[in-house]
Amino acid sequence: MESQRSGLPKQVQQIFERDGVVNEAVARGIVNYRALARWIMEGTGVVASEDAVLSAIRRIRGSQSVRPFRAAHKVVAESHLNVRSSLCQLTAPRTKGIQERLAAIFREIDFERGEILYYTQGESGIKILVDESNLRTVQAHLGTHILQVTKHLAAVSIVQPREGLQTPGILALLTNALALQNINVVDAVFGLPEYLFFVKQEDTLRAYQALEALISVSRQEAQNEKVPRAHGRPFRRRPVARA
Length: 243
Prior knowledge:
Elements: H1 2-18, H2 20-28, H3 33-43, H4 50-63, H5 70-77, E1 80-93, H6 96-108, E2 117-121, E3 125-131, H7 135-142, E4 148-159, H8 170-180, E5 187-191, E6 194-200, H9 204-225, E7 229-230, E8 233-234
Helix pairs in contact: 1-2, 1-4, 3-4, 5-9, 6-7, 8-9
């Protein structure tokens, strides 16, 4: 029995480490600890009394000095959004011949005018993303090798500070914000200084609003860190009485 008690904090800590939602909620102080203790007992197989699990949660909460997504929120807070519509995606087999034709396609894209071309390579195929105005150009080069064409796409991009690519957790925040709004990401491209999410054109506004809301929350998080806190509430200085 004593060995079970001594191992309980470690068990609870492992639950926190595996479940980012629980970890973040506890770190923010927005979860009912007793309800969380019951959830741990009922859903994870931890054998202990409710008070013992509650004590372990409080001990872990008291030892946490850094929230799991704190650095990611700071980067997102300094980011901004861009939107581009009228895009399309073409899928072709991953062969040497297709890769050679890609070089010819690149030469016909006018990047100085703002035209785009992205491609991603998977195990069995290549996906090419271009403006719909250049669809015929790509079709002329690939011909019957094209397996599928998806039109009416848009790209919602979040432009971040340079340190974003070295900050863990950013992609988790972004994809979670989109998933919570039931937005399907058709394709995605990541690189300095932005993350681009390609979605159906009818989902553009909802995708933009979801990421905009995340940026607002992250900016509020950053603002809250500048306010001295005591016992989980903003600290307010009392006015000094003057004679």
